[in-house]
Amino acid sequence: MGKGGENGECEKPVALYSWEEIQKHNVKTDQWLVIERKVYNISEWVRRHPGGARVIGHYAGEDATDPFRAFHPDYQFVQKFLKPLLIGELAPEEPSQDRDKNAQQIEDFRALRKTAEDMALFNGDPVFFSLYLGHILLLEVLAWFTLWYFGTGLISTMITIILLTTSQAQAGWLQHDFGHLSVFKKSSWNHVVHKFVIGHLKGASANWWNHRHFQHHAKPNIFRKDPDVNMLHVFVLGDTQPIEYGKKKLKYLPYNYQHEYFFLIGPPLLIPIYFTIQIIKTMIDRRDWVDLIWSFSYYIRYFYTFVPFYGVLGSLVFLNTIRFFESHWFVWVTQMNHIAMEIDKEKYRDWLSCQPVSHNATSQLPQDCPPGEISVQQIWCEL
Questions:
Q1: Which residues form the Cytochrome b5 heme-binding domain (predicted)?
Q2: Domain annotation for the chain: domains and CATH numbers
């Protein structure tokens, strides 16, 4: 029954849904999700979702409360976009979590997050990030000065490669924080600086990175949802994919030896070849002219700086040498705690349990904590 309004009119009764009904709406053309027990029909909205259709669609038919909170720092602002999509609520007898997820762990994690927010642990320090950006720019200047003052001999060239490899790697970590909107309180400021760092300082695309990286955080190490484990048949990861390749007799490479050739293909080729080609292709295919201009500004600056020293061909070799070493740095830092985690199909785990953490945290889990279940106490120790 509806409740009486101020004018004596009856309000429209709230539609109530079961998890069984909600879970049916998890296909590309029909998507529902739940946020704080409210049910939303996002079937049409996904195409206009600022973060992309895939990242929100990965939670179709599920409770998306925790990822929604994680991806939207300005919670009040995005609420207005949810109102037109609201179609009902979970029935009172239905649990807040779907598929028998660990309710106590979810409650503990949310309490931990609230504590961290109250302690201002998520507040970025503008001074720190200014100094961080400043030291990257300083490395760029020192690289140019080394060649200008000492010439293009072997030793000065090696020093310059070290300086520029360090600046590129550090710019990669810095753009990550701006991409996550973690520095400034205003999202627009984060977006502008993000495009400057990843575009002008690295020659990459902010939108390309957001599209890939947000999906990765939404569903880490889940096949067909996390782009970082879609390796174009170069590597087959985890325990499931190699078996599937064997059954289908897909023999693109000698996968039984991939543990030996991983370090010969992955680290040296990821940034110089795979990422570079994919970034340029993505910007052109999507007609992302803004990011393309930012990217071009990097290449114009780079060749203007180094062609006088090495010529056009020499500058190309110089650039790819820097990216070769940066790629090793990037892979060793990022992948050692990602591909070591479970890589499999969708298992509908809660937000905390599916997040990659350091090996130290997972290796010290209590004996009664099942694989994939991450202790909130361990996460707190990690903080």
A1: 14-91
A2: 16-99 (3.10.120.10), 126-382 (no CATH)
